[in-house]
Amino acid sequence: MALEPVTLSGRHVELVPLSRDHREALAEAARDGELWRLWYTAVPTPDGMAAEIERRLGLQAAGAMLPFTVLDGPGGRPVGMTTYMNVDAAGPRVEIGSTWYAARVQRTPLNTEAKRLLLGHAFDRLGCLAVEFRTHFMNHQSRRAIERLGAKLDGVLRHHQRTKDGALRDTCVYSITAPEWPTVRAHLTWQLEKSR
Q1: What is the rounded CA–CA span in Å between residue 90 and residue 76?
Q2: Which residue segments constitute the domains of the chain, with CATH numbers given?
Q3: pTM, rounded to two decimals
């Protein structure tokens, strides 16, 4: 599996390789909704954006992550981040995660199209057997969004990891498998057509 930087473009969103040049715009996007204040997420603070970009780029250099900056349409402004992570090249299998969006673009066609682009690339270009999504058990908004994509709950990893405040996190693990992808793709395309 050749996990290399790539740009994925749609009508509502463009996913471009994460760059240090995106720091200021991403810090501004995080301020929209003060996303870092949500206790069950790990969104960087505006002041911590440079460190988060370096962390993600370091994991990319190690072959463990492929990070994207999310733009609000082709050539638009940065409104968030997303990644392929927990890369299993032997599978091949990836997780789509570490995703966050400015409040103003949440619950818009942007997320649906971003996921369709990422899933399409994972299944159609990278040949993945399955794509995972993971979220905090208490992040009900994220869980509903993942389920609306057509992902199925594989299970809950209890006491899976510690959150930024030291609490133990139960992690919900969802996935979409390669045989399910054509149906999921048709569903996501239908949702996007509905939103025109």
Answers
A1: 35
A2: 8-194 (3.40.630.30)
A3: 0.92
